[in-house]
Amino acid sequence: MRAPRALRLQDVAERAGVSLATASRALSGRDGVSSGVAERVREVARDMGYVANPHARSLAGGSTPSVGLVVHEISDPYFAEIATGVMRVGDREGLTVQVCHTGRDPDREVAQIRALTANRVGRIIIAGSGFVDAAVQRETRRALDDYRATGGRVAVIGRHHLSADAVLPDNRDGARSMVEHLLSLGHRRLAIVAGSRLLTTVADRLAGATETLTEHGLDPASMPVIEAEFTRRGGKEAARRVLDEHPDVTAILALNDDMAIGVLSALRGAGVDVPRDVSVAGFDDIGVAQDLAPSLTTVRLPMTSIGEIALSLTLQEPAARPRRRTTGHELVIRDSTGAPRP
């Protein structure tokens, strides 16, 4: 005979007709719940025989020495450098960091958050682009709300639609700086290679690029935007398409450095000289960018610092409203960009 399932806080919340967060506050005696509602929840809990999980209460005190870091692609140096920052602060604070990989799949992201919640981590950091359509992240928001109801703390990196403390990379202005640089060299036939426009990071960087073209009297519609995987392989595929479909292009802006590496590889394989024939620029300034041949012109984001800031936010007491931290950027000009041929 199967043993009966243990009662959960969610069972109490459903019986009392309140949210999971309200039930948690009522049973822990925290503010934000009227006395009448709190008493009803406690009465339901007594009637059901529910006993609060002491570990969940320890989460609120920050005593659980573990952090869940959820990233899109652990092989992408962008996320590896963010993880370095998280681990640096974790080591200093005596926290263990568990890294989870989603492959930019919203359902897998939810599953990872649920697993981290079940594993009773004290803090969760979500790193990487969200989605332009807020509805895609509805289940992620719900999973994080349930997690925070137990006292867990959350910070996000590069997300627009999740109500949590956030570190926001300077994507829009960084793209503006790069396009300004390419235009200052004399380029007018630009192409962009990018991940899916459904990603907010891509949308923000594209917005900065198109705004700059408009300000210079150029038609953004004349600039090819080639979508592919937001990876090195995607960069190769996109560069081949640029060469085949837009042979007059004199500069390619890849919206992350991983794609830019793929672009350089494809151009080299096609016998295209960089930057004499085509200039190439990236975004992020991952560690290997300066060691490529030619070295990569790119937009530097302080990725290790981004990870440090994100975890530091979860070490602070929760604020009444989500805190926002912006990062700034730096244009790093190297050998992969130059003036177009006359």
From TrEMBL:
SUPFAM superfamilies: lambda repressor-like DNA-binding domains, Periplasmic binding protein-like I. Residues 320-342 are annotated as: Disordered. GO terms for molecular function: DNA-binding transcription factor activity; transcription cis-regulatory region binding. Gene3D superfamilies: 3.40.50.2300, lambda repressor-like DNA-binding domains. Residues 7-61 form the HTH lacI-type domain. Keywords: DNA-binding, Transcription, Transcription regulation. Pfam families: LacI (PF00356), Peripla_BP_3 (PF13377). This is LacI family transcriptional regulator. PANTHER family: HTH-TYPE TRANSCRIPTIONAL REGULATOR GALS (PTHR30146:SF109), LACI-RELATED TRANSCRIPTIONAL REPRESSOR (PTHR30146).
